[in-house]
Amino acid sequence: MPRLLYITLLLIVFTGESLAQADYAIMFYNVENLFDCEDDSLKFDEEFLPNGNKHWSNYRLYNKIKGISKTILAANQWNSPAIIGLCEIENENTLKKLIYSTGLSNLGYRYIHYESMDKRGIDVALLYKKGIFNLLSSAPIPQSDSTNHFYTRDALYVKGVIATDTLHIVVNHWPSKRGGELASEIKRERVAQAVTIKIDSIRSKEKAPKLVVLGDFNAELNAPSIKYLLAHSNLDTKLKLSSIRTDAIQGSHKYLGHWSLIDHLFLSADWLSNPAYSFDHKIVNLPNLLEDDKTYSGLKPRRTYAGPRYIGGVSDHLPVIVNIKKK
Questions:
Q1: What distance in Å separates the CA atoms of residue 268 and residue 207, rounded to the nearest whole number?
Q2: How far apart are CA 217 and CA 225, in angstroms?
Q3: Which domain does 113 fall in, by range?
Q4: pTM of the model
Q5: If pLDDT is split at 50, 70 and 90, which confidence band does 317 have?
Q6: Fewer CB near the terminus (10 Å): N or C of the chain?
């Protein structure tokens, strides 16, 4: 056999083996108000304009997207995430700046985003590495109901293949606790029901699908909305963040001195119990994402603003990530 042909065949064999033994990471990150500097007359984005209360500027925007990109690059050491769910992004313009104007530009990231009816204009999105994740389809999961004056960001459904795995991904950003946790819980339950309907549809067409339901749920594991989602969608909490708390970091978000676990990565139960796979889950607590909590002690995420005061941090949330390896 000619030497060149022999080497080519070896490359094909080893490439196939590496794909069969897949090792990839999925991350979620609430990037906290990633707005551009342009006025959108259809959105309440006045706060994040150069003449707005936050005195937002291209310089501050660049610092923020640079911080997000550095977080993505450092979150998983040498193996940057193949798939990244994001929330609190304003539009495609901010996503393009993030993946084409930073250190991410050489990694082949592409984005998926749909405009939703959220009044502030903050949406969810998905980044993925082209050539590693093969996109098959995507669509928003509508959540707003204008007849009942209910406006919130849509969820995002994405289907694709990575290595030998077909993944069904749902990116979420559930309604906040504004107005009180109990009063707002009914809104989150409503969104949970819509997401569950989508998952039921997936399961009706595919046996034992590999589901990844991730996002900022604005709810901890004991909330009725989360309990409903898990009970009706065959998702598992084996990756719950409470299992990886540290003395300094007790969650993904801190408010008035209290850490909470509201950023979740849920996977389908039958996938998690499959002995052919291993899963490693963690909160990304890089030093540059944290600062001293001078009011309540300990540490807290270093956010971009504290009220109207510009601090220059990345986000008030910490990312969460899972490494998935096929043995």
A1: 12
A2: 9
A3: 22-326
A4: 0.91
A5: very high
A6: N
Per-residue H/E/C for the chain: CCHHHHHHHHHHHHHHHHHHCCEEEEEEEEEEEECCCCCCCCCCCHHHCCCCCCCCCHHHHHHHHHHHHHHHHHCCCCCCCCEEEEEEECCHHHHHHHHHCCHHHHCCEEEEECCCCCCCCCEEEEEEEECCEEEEEEEEECCCEHHHCECCCCEEEEEEEECCEEEEEEEEECCCCCCCHHHHHHHHHHHHHHHHHHHHHHHHHCCCCEEEEEEECCCCCCCHHHHHHHHHHCEECCCCHHHHCCCCCCCCEEECCEEECCEEEEEEHHHHCCCCEEEEEEECCCHHHEEECCCCCCEEECCCEECCEECCCCCCECCEEEEEEEC
Query: Does residue 98 register a pLDDT over 80?
Result: yes
Identify the bridge partners of residue 326 per DSSP, sorted by sequence position.
277
Q: Which CATH number is 274's domain given? A: 3.60.10.10
213 vs 299: CA distance, rounded Å? 28
With 70 as the cut, is the pLDDT of residue 238 above it? no
Contact between 257 and 241 (Cβ < 8 Å): no
Residue 90 lies in a domain: yes
Other Cβ atoms closer than 10 A to 230: 19
Q: For the chain, what is the domain count?
A: 1
HSE of 121, CA atoms in CB hemisphere, 13 A? 19
174 domain residue, yes or no: yes
Per-residue pLDDT tens digits for 104-116 = 999 999 999 999 8
User: How confident is the model over 45-60, as a mean pLDDT?
Assistant: 94
8 is a domain residue: no
d(CA 48, CA 62): 14
Confidence of residue 243 (pLDDT cuts 50, 70, 90): low
Instruction: Give the per-residue pLDDT at 89.
Output: 97
